[in-house]
Amino acid sequence: xxKDGPDLSPPTVLRLxxxxxxxxxxxxxxxxxxxxxxxxDAYGNNASQVRQDIFRLENSGRLGQGYSTWELAExxxxxxxxxxxxxxCIVGIGNLGKALATHVPFSDYGMSLAxxxxxxxxxxxxxxxxxxxxxxxxxxxxxxxxxIVIGAICVPTNVAQSVCDTLVxxxxxxxxxxxxxxxxxxxxxxxxxxxxICSFMQLSYKVSND
Amino acid sequence: xxKDGPDLSPPTVLRLxxxxxxxxxxxxxxxxxxxxxxxxDAYGNNASQVRQDIFRLENSGRLGQGYSTWELAExxxxxxxxxxxxxxCIVGIGNLGKALATHVPFSDYGMSLAxxxxxxxxxxxxxxxxxxxxxxxxxxxxxxxxxIVIGAICVPTNVAQSVCDTLVxxxxxxxxxxxxxxxxxxxxxxxxxxxxICSFMQLSYKVSND
Lengths: 210, 210
What we know:
The structure is a homodimer. Chain A is an alpha/beta fold.
């Protein structure tokens, strides 16, 4: 997997990954069976959407009135290919980069944080968990040597595009962009935007209109 | 506004806010007119979706073959009610909370960061920009006194629900949740989930299937 699996759209993949976290939470609370309605209530969408998403999986763990929480979680993991290991790097170890490196549970979801880079002498050489922050000048070599395919860009806006270019030149195909500019990259590269201010704008609109 | 404005769905609001950042970027680059196609290319969707979204605005700044970049940006600001000021607080000033407090340009988008809270004696009393981190025990009073309506939860998972409860009890109606659990809140409260690991899973799926 996932080569032979269903070809899922990015929004479906996102919802499945979010269902996975909910199922894991239910599993920890010893809730062994879950209905599409309960999953939809926890997620904040509707049961028909949930059923449609689950229908894309090969084996949904359906049990009469509901789904086995554990089996459904496992099937999502299998479908998303979370048993393979994809290597990730973080560029820019300010507060945000440090937060990602410290708190994102990569290894629980088929990823491994393989490198972290910065340009500041105060940060280079420091340890985050078991990882030593490297000098940005080592980025190209490290990405190639370690076969890193995903990069998170946590650098100031004015250098984001050049960091993106360097990542792409060295084989990175998935980028999580925390800078506020749109990045230019070849078509084979996927870019996810994490523009926190936009989430705040969404909330701001919502609280003003309810 | 936005009381008399169109009633926009959350995904539309999110896209409009993201178009706004793109338009501002084009504006800085002195690009005065933009086509729906160019906006779609920069955003990563299609021109028909862009036109449909812009159609929801009262005055789109349409000029023959394109839109005035500046007028379209202004109209999005007006529609999203970004000239009113909504007050925001951040709970939990670890690396992530500090990153939000330091880097999110609240005041450029109709918001004001009015308070930050933590429980650690090492963090309470420290300044972030012009804001002094307060003791978490002052949260209820501060939220009411300052009329804070939006809160970002950047605390460990095991206390996220109780922080959410306290925010809601004191009048917060919009919550940005960085913890990994689904939060329970009354229907009038909007919760945005920022589950960074899910964005990484999306990228991981994409790089494995292309």
